[in-house]
Fold:
Amino acid sequence: EADIYQTPRYLVIGTGKKITLECSQTMGHDKMYWYQQDPGMELHLIHYSYGVNSTEKGDLSSESTVSRIRTEHFPLTLESARPSHTSQYLCASFSGTETEETQYFGPGTRLLVL
Amino acid sequence: QKEVEQNSGPLSVPEGAIASLNCTYSDRGSQSFFWYRQYSGKSPELIMSIYSNGDKEDGRFTAQLNKASQYVSLLIRDSQPSDSATYLCAVKTSYDKVIFGPGTSLSVIP
Structure:
């Protein structure tokens, strides 16, 4: 069982609000990832991190930002939420050697922007 | 061209049959390849990973990799109704990005 947590699990918020989605893992993994997934659709990589103070943008254009101040914590922030941000957000951490790797997913945050 | 592509499905197989899922990728520098299963409303869960050309078996699952053809496949033997889910192919690219394909929906008919 992977120890990766996301809060909140569900969030309903009005347009224009600033929100932060929390993700934390207790496994000491260096690599962490944020994905966005609409129901029945594919996962889109929005941000990832190699380690503390290292963040990169993924392939999906997004108005979100991330930070990685501590190994275990990788929060995602939307400065001004819009209805187009309504989706599920999945956080993952990655561990392993060159020949055996595993990516663990958190339970996800379902966001509804009204 | 998408970085990771999968046969679109949905794929239906009778219980006990072999299900075959395919995936192609564009980054020739990719070294790590993964198959995930995702049930509706749940997070993806890792089935297996593969790194070298050839086959890798784990129980009823066999992953096949051909780097020259940039092709990865997953075979599920003796398919069970509980295998009904969306199967996601993922590739760790040369920049450590883990990119997912669109998924193939599998339905195993009792």
Remarks:
- The interface with chain A takes residues 3, 31-32, 34, 43-46, 49, 51, 88, 90, 92, 95-103 of chain B (CB under 8 Å).
- The longest strand of chain B covers residues 85-92.
- Chain B has a mean pLDDT of 93.
- The two ends of chain B are 37 Å apart (CA to CA).
